[in-house]
Design brief:
The chain is of the alpha+beta class. Among the domains are: 2-150, Thiol:disulfide interchange protein DsbD, N-terminal domain (Immunoglobulin-like); 255-442, no CATH class; 564-712, Glutaredoxin, CATH 3.40.30.10. Helix content is 49%, strand content 16%. The protein has 20 helices and 21 strands. The N and C termini lie far apart (67 Å).
């Protein structure tokens, strides 16, 4: 349980890590020639104040903590001599619920002697995790290639190198500030030019109307040509929109809508097998432990309020620490985060199967027992926190679905608050009206079966997280056919389990009832529906499987052009410059599609909206499409790396480049996000669109962009 609590803490602290995307440990390599074709490779690590790196071993009793590993790869030219030595002061600290941990703070050097045959590069890999007293960042791997056999030139002292490193770090914030200031100035200039152009266009239209009123078609076409006067919003280098065709900017979810979604999610989570049995036990505890009925009711109400408070407090970092949309993007697409959730859901699934119980440590249980007669708010809040932790294996997927539909970080607080209310209010009601407990179904064999069914469902969710990591990295482990085949197997196995054809644990018995047989048939039908995908039937699976172009049976229809692929038969470019040139050549507007490999809503659009007749016609015949994957991990050439004040770090990958473009010009951190561009005048045609599941609304958006483009030429 200690490991599970630690993992849960790391996952929560991961939000903060990706909000800043900051590095708190800095590494550099040096080579010292020793003579006789021997050299000393030194990897020097320095840490920000308050941060540390774990030593090896990281803990006496907990192998789950990640020690820093520095590896020198043995090659035909390079042979390590002896073992790697870590030079630094080890700090030993006793952490409650974890044990004695060992780590370095401030600095540590890793030294390895090597033997080489000739001048060449050494492959050095550093695998590490930085932590502070609040939590840990996800593990990171760095690679260095220092060169041996080269005499040192202009060798600098350690003090001079440290001074230069500090100056570099101190200048980063100044660079970011300067870049943002320059962007603001450019935006102001764009706005001024757009307003001036609007006045000129209006004057020209009026003059044309006066002098050439007989030519109705010309007057009409020019007079109604959008001028951009209706909006003052500037989209970075693309200026103001050409026209909006009467459309309004997408409002997205409102605070109250997010709050309502949260309440519905909390009510749904109430009936999950990890939560439902706790209602009568908890309420009975409060009623019996109280001095009188009135006090019992009061305690129950405080308990319901405490459940709401737990989820409300968990949401506050998003509100007050500036963990915005870019943080959510980084968190949701990070490979290590997705792999961690994959592992957590596997653990939860086998717990629901009954192989083990995820329960609180005995020391914590004893504290609860010792406070069983306590009526203080602190004791009640602690019990609410306990409920949130032990029920996470069931409530986590529901909460994940609620938060998965929110792209604005400011809406997370009302959504999670609503979730806490939906889950907590029933506890208060049952405390006020204990007779309602009689209406709840009694615990029994059906609950064991239900828990197992949810275990199979959590395995399906686990595959989605593994698929996200696989898509981002391009490993090819879970192509679309493999993913769907595993889902079909899970559906069939769940149906057979509900029919009582097998049991999960030895000695257990599953007696199939009429209701269980009905649900078994539903799972078999779902398996049949999913299998239609193998027969080229367009099935709607809510964007969960990998895209159709990430499949063994996918072909580019004979096209082998670099930077081009097909989405449901629609040609798209993965390079913006290439798409822009093609749009100019074909005299068509350009649609920039900010998308992502791990984006569920992007798959929904591509599989359910793009194939509809009107939309497909537009995308195939009237537009050139640039699909820019903001989580693409392909490394940019070193000369193309740049500091991004919007990412608050150096942009090193293709995905970084596209995500910076989205944030810099459109302030859009969510995907999908669609922008229609005039490739000749480099202007934005109309108000961009985010996720638009209604094909009619999306077709109107494309109609408007095409109309505005034709009005310019």
């Amino acid at each position: 349980m200690k490991k599970i609590l630690l993992l849960f803490t790391i996952l929560l602290s991961g939000f903060g890590a990706f909000a800043q995307m900051a590095e708190h440990a800095f590494f550099k390599t040096t080579v010292k020639e020793l003579g006789n074709n021997e050299a000393e490779i030194r990897v020097k690590a320095t840490m920000d104040k308050g941060w540390h790196l774990y030593a090896s071993p990281a803990a006496d009793d907990d192998p789950s903590l990640i020690s820093t590993e520095v590896t020198i790869k043995k090659t035909a030219n390079i042979t390590p001599i002896g073992k790697m030595k870590a030079i630094g002061k080890i700090i030993d600290e006793d952490i409650k619920a974890v044990g004695i941990v060992h780590y370095y703070k401030d600095k540590v050097d890793y030294v390895q002697k090597v033997k080489y045959k000739k001048k060449g590069k050494v492959e050095v890999e550093v695998y590490y995790q930085t932590c502070d007293d609040k939590g840990c960042l996800p593990p990171t791997t760095l690679n260095f290639t220092p060169e041996v056999g080269v005499a040192a030139k202009n060798k600098k002292s350690e003090a001079q190198l440290a001074k230069e490193e500090k100056a570099k770090k101190d200048s980063l914030e100044a660079i970011f500030t300067a870049q943002k200031k320059e962007d603001s100035i450019n935006t102001a200039k764009k706005l001024a030019l757009s307003k001036e152009k609007a006045k000129d266009d209006s004057a020209a239209n009026a003059e044309l109307f006066t002098e050439d009123s007989k030519d109705a078609d010309t007057v009409s076409k020019t007079a109604v040509a959008p001028t951009g006067e209706k909006t003052s919003e500037v989209y970075g280098e693309y200026g103001t929109i050409v026209g909006d065709c009467g459309e309004e900017k997408d409002a997205g979810l409102s605070m109250w809508t997010a709050f309502l979604y949260g309440i519905l999610g909390g009510l749904a989570a109430l009936f999950f097998p990890c939560t439902l049995p706790m209602i009568p036990m908890t309420i009975s505890f409060f009623l019996k432990s109280a001095g009188d009925k009135k006090q019992g009711i009061k305690n129950g109400i405080w308990y319901g309020f405490s459940i709401f408070l737990v989820y409300f407090l968990l949401s506050l970092p998003f509100l007050f620490l500036g963990w915005g949309g870019s943080a959510l993007h980084s968190f949701s697409t990070n490979v290590w985060v997705n792999l961690a959730f994959f592992a957590v859901f596997i653990v939860f699934a086998f717990s629901l199967f009954g192989f083990y119980d995820i329960s609180l440590p005995s020391s914590m249980t004893q504290k609860i027992d010792s406070k069983s007669n306590a009526t203080s708010f602190g004791g009640i809040f602690f019990m609410a926190l306990t409920l949130a932790i032990v029920s996470f294996s069931c409530t986590g997927p529901i909460l994940g679905l609620v938060l998965g539909n929110i792209s604005n970080a400011k809406l997370i607080t009302p959504a999670m608050s609503g979730f806490g209310i939906g889950l907590g209010v029933p506890f208060a009601l049952f405390a006020m009206f204990p007779n309602l407990l009689k209406a709840l179904p009694k615990s029994g064999g059906w609950l064991t079966v239900l828990k197992a069914v949810f275990g199979f469902i959590e395995l399906a969710f686990a595959l989605k997280f593994l698929s996200n990591a696989d898509l981002v990295m391009g490993w090819g482990l879970l192509k679309r056919e493999t993913f769907l085949a595993l889902w079909i197997i899970l559906c069939v196995v769940t149906g057979l389990y509900l029919l009582g054809k097998f049991t999960i644990k030895k000695g257990s018995v599953v007696v199939s009832t009429r209701n269980m047989k009905i649900f078994a048939v539903l799972f078999f039908l779902l398996a049949g529906y999913i299998s239609l995908d193998f027969f080229k039937v367009n099935v709607n699976l809510l964007g969960f499987p990998p895209p159709k172009f990430y499949a063994y049976g996918y072909s580019e229809e004979g096209h082998e052009e670099k930077g081009v692929h097909f989405v449901n038969g629609i040609k798209t470019y993965t390079d913006l410059d290439m798409a822009m040139e093609e749009a100019k050549k074909q005299n068509k507007p350009l649609m920039i599609d900010f998308t992502g490999w791990a984006c569920v809503n992007c798959r929904k659009m591509e599989e359910n909206v793009w194939p509809t007749t009107k939309v497909r016609e537009h995308l195939s015949d009237n537009y050139v499409i640039a699909s820019l994957y903001v989580d693409e991990q392909i490394e940019l050439p070193e000369e193309e790396h740049f500091l991004s004040p919007y990412l608050k770090r150096e942009a090193k990958t293709v995905g970084d480049k596209w995500f910076d473009l989205s944030l810099r010009n459109f302030r859009a951190a969510s995907q999908p996000f669609y922008v229609l561009i005039d490739p000749k005048g480099h202007r934005i045609l109309n108000t961009p669109k985010a996720y638009t599941p209604n094909p009619s609304d999306y077709a109107k958006f494309l109609d408007c962009g095409l109309k505005n483009y034709k009005s310019l030429y």
